Amino acid sequence: MSVCSMRGQGVLLVLISAAVFSSVGLFVKGVEADSWTILFWRGLSATAFTLIYVGWRGRLYQEFMQMGKPGISAAVIGALATAAFIPSFKYTSIANVSLIYAAVPFVAAAIAWIWMREKPALPVMLASLAALAGVAIIVGGSLDSINLQGDLLALWMTIGMAGFLCIYRRFPQTPAAGPAVLSSLLLVPVVLFGGDPLSIPPMEIFLSCSFGLVFAIASVTMAEGARRLPAAETALISALETPLAPLWAYLVFSELPTRFTLIGGMIILLAVFGSQLYALWRKPAA
Q1: How far apart are CA 142 and CA 147, in angstroms?
Q2: pTM of the entire predicted model
Q3: What is the number of other CB atoms lying within 10 angstroms of the CB of residue 34?
């Protein structure tokens, strides 16, 4: 397969992943069931799809038997982040969640600096400070409102996902699918204690399972696309989910971002796209 063909496939796969990921908030907002119930059905369907995909690739043994401590740690952190991710949509706007989550690369850079002494380049540090300011503006705009709880959950999810990424940065040989499945399964007993998954209407079960399927498909297409593209280009294309999510929220639910969300979100988007464009621009000179 030619390089151009490989790159074209990578761009298409990451674009599909970004578009699919941007729709996540619609599933959560569109289901009246509580967060625990959504977590249960989402986890079961995502686990089933992931197991089918890994089995198709013939990597069941490698994914689960080679996790080690890094894989188990990633699963635990991923479960904690997911447990905050779903409820965040119930308490704040889709725009707030998606824009706060866009700061993940910069939070990951800070964690890598502290944990692995991996000092980020000056442009990344400046972009990180800008993204932090953007997040502060969004969260500050939610003070004294119900949105604050959702914003803080989104922030916790962002920190958790940043730590999740740093584990793979520190231990790149760690399998991805095995920890993802374990992460979903770890939440099952908690969900059963906190909710009643069988009490909701069949249509809501279907939507919650569809959410899990969509999430799994987005994860798989992202992984396959990342194999075919440079890391900076993958990050830049995947960042398109951030402006798409508020657009879907407006078209489906007529959900308008607040003034603070627009200002903070613009700062975060400039930091994200600016840092990734700079990385692409520097690539040929490397």
Answers
A1: 5
A2: 0.81
A3: 18
Give the sign of the dihedral formed by CA 234, CA 238, CA 240, CA 243. Answer: negative
36, pLDDT greater than 70: yes
pLDDT digits over 210-238, tens only?
888 887 888 778 767 766 766 556 666 77
Between 284 and 154, name the one with better pLDDT: 154
Q: Give the helix, strand, coil percentages of the chain, each rounded to 5.
A: 85, 0, 15
Distances (CA, A) of 54 to 18, 58, 60: 21, 6, 6
d(CA 221, CA 223): 5
> Could you give the CA distance from residue 164 to residue 160 in angstroms, rounded to a whole number?
6
Q: Residues near 183 by Cβ (< 8 Å), separated by ≥ 6?
A: 74, 75, 76, 78, 79, 82
